[in-house]
What we know:
The chain is of the alpha+beta class. It is built from 5 helices and 3 strands; from the N terminus they run H-H-E-H-H-E-E-H. Helix content is 58%, strand content 12%.
Amino acid sequence: MRCVPRAATTADVFNAIAEARRRDILVFLADRERPVGDIVGELGLGQPSVSKHLKVLRHVGLVHVRREARQIFYRTNAEALRPVHEWTQNFERYWRRQLTRIAERAERKTRSH
């Protein structure tokens, strides 16, 4: 079996969010912008690790960056997650159909008893 090399984590949004810590950072930054120190404190990650993850997220456009004096603030760029949202909609339709089938079976079972 031939191994296909995995795409670099900085290649696109999908690869960037494949890392759980990056997803945690995006969730933490979703409601408002925050400095690196807040991310470090809240998520319990080392500052070098957070900086590395933010660099990847910046590279693919998943975070907005704003500098104020010596401090840098980050915030999730939800619009950049659109490709992920559109892709997951395929599965959303699947689960909706599954839930409808379950509800129909439950109704039939209730009526038969």
